Amino acid sequence: MAQEEAQKSTDVVAVATTTDKEVTAPAPVPEKEVTAPVASEEKAVPEKEEKVTSQADAEKSSPVKEEETVVAEKVIAPSPEELEKKALEELKELVREALNKREFTPPPPPPVKEEKTEEKKPAEETKEEEKTEEKKEEEAVKIEEKSSDAVAPEETKPEEKPEAAAAPAETTPEEKEVVPATVTTTEKASGAEEDGTKTVEAIEESIVSVTPPEPAAPVVLETTVATEPEPVEPEEVSIYGVPLLQDERSDTILLKFLRARDFKVKEALTMLKNTVQWRKENKIDELLEAEAGEEASEFEKMVFAHGVDKEGHVVIYSSYGEFQNKELFSDKEKLNKFLSWRIRLQEKCVRALDFSSPDAKSSFVFVSDFRNAPGLGKRALWQFIKRAVKQFEDNYPEFATRELFINVPWWYIPYYKTFGSIITSPRTRSKMVLAGPAKSADTIFKYIAPEQVPVKYGGLSNDIPLTGEDTVTEAIVKPAAKYTIEMPASEACTLSWELRVLGADVSYGAQFEPTTEGSYDVIVSKNRKIGLTDEPVTTGSFKVGEPGKIVITIDNQTSKKKKVLYRFKTQPRSDL
């Protein structure tokens, strides 16, 4: 049996040497040496297992991340319309809370001066009372000192009497001298102390009884508590003639404040409160009902509303050259009158807008004409203009869909940087368009149809009643070329037209050419030169007795192309 076991062990060793290359000696390993590597292997195995588990965890975790990224990709960001609705609902809720708390009407300012005088009086009284108390305390201390001095001799006198009374007692001489003396002194001293304390208590009681009650500080607190406003009904606030939170028009107005503050709800609420307060301080409702002053006719030449743009927005024109009129703008008082009139005009135009839906045309196109505008040397005037623009921006937010600056001089470009700095909203800055004198008309016609533009600013007059079909036609006359315009008339009628050549310096002529054979052409207007000093709009009319057409010829002999604007209308003849 022993031999078989030895052979088995040698076989095991041989197999181990063949399978494991790290084994160097075929001799059997002692138990101590075998157990150590086994232990190390047992320790090493868990490390591998830990690595495997960590890899497995990583593999498990990585798919989770992939799933998360996939889910994140599938999430659709809210659309701008949804963000607007959410911000609008939040603002409406804050406005409702503010109305319930009556935050739009601040309480009247308290009488500060009266309160200060009332507060000073009790303070002075308290100081005087404190001084009197200090004097009384000093007097009480003096009384205590005097009382203690008066009590001391009274204590010494009765000490001798008990000694004499105690002499006949049958005691030793030492007892007579020591014992009775100690007893009597302690008793008398305690009695003196009691008398002293009684006197001090009596003095304290007298002091307490003399001290007056505390000053009326708590009374002031009671009055302030009594003046606190009790819960009342929600207030009603209107802005631009529209009551807040009463109908759908209020949503359109609230959206303007949200857009002005980039949909930051709390900032929009603050802006709304400030606007309501500004309107109350300046009495806008009363200003709207007030009659215009004597200067209104002159002011109307500076700022007026006329026509609409191609999208249907009302257009407001402003002429900065009128600020050169010294009679109107000689001092601050007249400037303030103009500002009040300008606010009144703005309020009238705003109340005429349609707030029924966000898609309605509830904003303006502003055209500012800088021809003959005051120079930069008139700083006071430009500061006034800045202040006025700031007021309109803060209290009429998002009422400008576009701002056109025409006939801008060269010196305005550097000033534009400072002028634009007062416009805080990037949305408003993006709406500003500048054009020099040569490109002003083209810039206006890009946004406003010529028939809607006043003659003063390069458009056509409104002498001819228009319908939807009577639109203005634009044409280009090439350099050194002629251009003809034909206006047909199929029956007896009155044919009217108006025409304008931007830049002028052309020749103009018109004639009637009948369609029937044997009829003669009729000269309506002889060829004539149209210069820069002539009337900008050329008008004409002709009573047509037979079918034909009016032919207008424009001859441009210059080296620059010209733009022609024209329109016509036929009306039945009333004399037939």
UniProtKB/TrEMBL annotation:
Q: GO MF terms on file?
A: lipid binding; protease binding
Return the CDD domains for the record. SEC14
Q: Where is the composition biased (Low complexity)?
A: 179-189
- Listed InterPro entries: CRAL-TRIO_dom, CRAL-TRIO_dom_sf, CRAL/TRIO_N_dom, CRAL/TRIO_N_dom_sf, GOLD_dom, GOLD_dom_sf, PATL, PATL1-6_C_GOLD
The yes or no answer to whether the keyword Cell membrane is present is no
Q: Name one GO cellular component term.
A: cytoplasm
Key word Cell division present: yes
Task: Region Disordered: list its residue ranges.
Answer: 1-70, 97-197
Q: Where is the composition biased (Basic and acidic residues)?
A: 30-68, 112-163
Q: Which family does it belong to?
A: Belongs to the patellin family.
Give the protein's recorded name. Answer: Patellin-1
| Organism, scientific name | Brassica carinata (Ethiopian mustard)
